[in-house]
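Appendix B, record 7
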Amino acid sequence: HYRSKHESLISFSNAHFYDNKLLTFPSPDDLNRKVTFEFIDGFYDKGKTRTNKNEAEAIIEYIRIHLENQNKKSIGVVTFSQTQQSLIEDLLQKLFQENPHLEEFVINSEEPIFIKNLENVQGDERDTIIFSIAYGVDAQGRLLHNFGPLNRVGGERRLNVAVTRAKCNVQLVSSMHYTDIDLKRTSAEGAKLLRE
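Structure tokens (predicted):
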């Protein structure tokens, strides 16, 4: 795959969307997957903000450390909802207001940070892509199996586009585990593939 610098970045799409017809080359460090999962103790505030604040704050902290270390790898954040996108944008703006040197580092970078949602990320690419699922259990511990655009017809294609945006690595940030998605409670292909 022309963008993916590691086989693990394209293997999911190759298996689930391209019938394993993409020719891939094993990476020299093939045992080191470039797709990681970080569980965040948070919840989806479905009744009020429709965001996952703990998840958003964890992503901003990741970005802060990345920039403090003057890491030159570019970052893109892909959210599963527009409300989560707006929250992360607001928190990033706050980070820059409190740390102007970090904003200056980003301004002088080759590729600026982007924060987009599943519905408008097509055509973008960055070294590191961070996914903010946002959806998950609510404050009462219930999971409604609503995953925004993934629940709609064609949602699986949006997921495919999103997961192939990374050049070097993907970090999946979520307040739920894949086992929380009950396939008996959803028929959406996008939700099934998210579980995978």
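Remarks on this record: The helical segments are 11-16, 53-68, 82-98, 100-107, 155-163, 189-195. The first strand starts at residue 35 and ends at 39.
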